[in-house]
Amino acid sequence: MKYFYTILFFLIFLNVSHSRNIGETQITTDEGIEVFSNEKYYLLKKNVIIESDKFSLSGDNIKIYFNKDMYDITEIEAVGNVKLKSVVNDINALGSFLLFNTVNEEVTIKGLKSKLFTDEFEMSSDGLINVNNKSGNFFINGKNSKLLNEDIIIIGENIKGIFSQENKNKEINYLNVTDKEESYVKSDETDLYAKNIEYNKETSLIELNENVRIIRNGEIVTGDYGTLDTKSNSYKVKSKNTKKVKVIISNSNE
User: In Å, what is the CA distance from 124 to each residue of 37, 92, 246?
Assistant: First the structure.
């Protein structure tokens, strides 16, 4: 059985004419709310704004799943001009579609010019961004996909990896970047190009496959396969297919 609530729903949550108090959730919408009690979700229609202690969310239309009662939110699905800010999960997100699982602390953003920010990283894509705060797994897919912070730039059609969960400051423990044209990673004074770039913190190695270019200190080295040791700051480039490794050294003083 389906139930439709408008005035009653606001009385349950809060009288929206007053400012929100701690522990309360305030919801405003232009076209009301439809509650599906048996299915345990409700629909918020047109120009929705949600304010709570844990997060704030706005969008054109929002679907909220709950467990025991309407306060016990388990998952949020938002469409159209979506903006999410979660202090608890350290996330700011923008996109045309959002799926936010409050139990798993997982957020997915889709659409052109999608963005997701944490204190340490900025992610953007015209496709999809997915971050799981509990496991540390992240995935960025689509055109114009990027991951940036103060120390690193990562660009590629598919970017996936794992953030460390050891302390508040997130670091990348594992990274895999692929692009049918060219992936790019910039770290310190080194620019890395390849179709596939993979990093593992345990081995301290960055591996590069296909159309490899390493640019550092005026040197340009190209080949089919390369490795860079982040601890020793040394690198190797080998040839598999072209049977040639090319090195270009420029004199910056000329």
Answer: 36, 12, 34
